[in-house]
Structures are given as C-alpha cells and as structure tokens.
Amino acid sequence: MRKLLLLGLLVLWSSNAFSSELEDLARDGYAVVETTQVDGDFEGCDFNKRIPLTNGLVFVCSEYNYSYSYMPEVLILKQVKSGDIKVLIDDDEYEGTLYQSQGVRRGS
Question: Which domain holds residue 69?
C-alpha cells in the first residue's frame, strides 16, 4: 500500500501537477490515495452542499468557498499515521466529509 501511495505522489510530482498546497500536505504526511472528478459542474462549496464524484463517492461541504469549473480533478489524500482524509478539488483544499453513495461515512 505504501508503495502505491508513494508511486501516486511521484506521478503527480513528475507531471508538474504539484501545487504548493499539495506539497504542504505531502510534507505533513498526506499521500494521494484516489483520483477522481466532480460529476458535472463544480460551483464551489456551501455548507451541507452535496458534490457527486465520478467514482461514486459524494463530498459534503462544511465551508463556503466559491469557484467554478466543469468536471475538475479531485484528489483524495490520506494522512499515513492518523488516517485523516483531505480533499483537493481543482488544486484547492475543501473542508467536508466523503460518503459512499449509500450514505456511509468514509472520512473527513
């Protein structure tokens, strides 16, 4: 599993997709565990807004932050030691919780 996480980080690094936010999270022990996309238009976050992802997960926002893009890339990161989950949408970190489509909590 660690090799897979490190490989994901190396692929992102080699493709120059590393943003400063992603670099900071990597330094804090976070690694990309899944890459997906928003399923349709993304108009930022609003409290309790549900954002469906193409991998079947749903991200529920717990902050307000406006931006717009169509089907932006979503990176799901996990802190190796604590298991904490972070979500980057279109290279920006958003606060919220991931759920499986049946409503089962996957992380926050």
Answer: 2-107
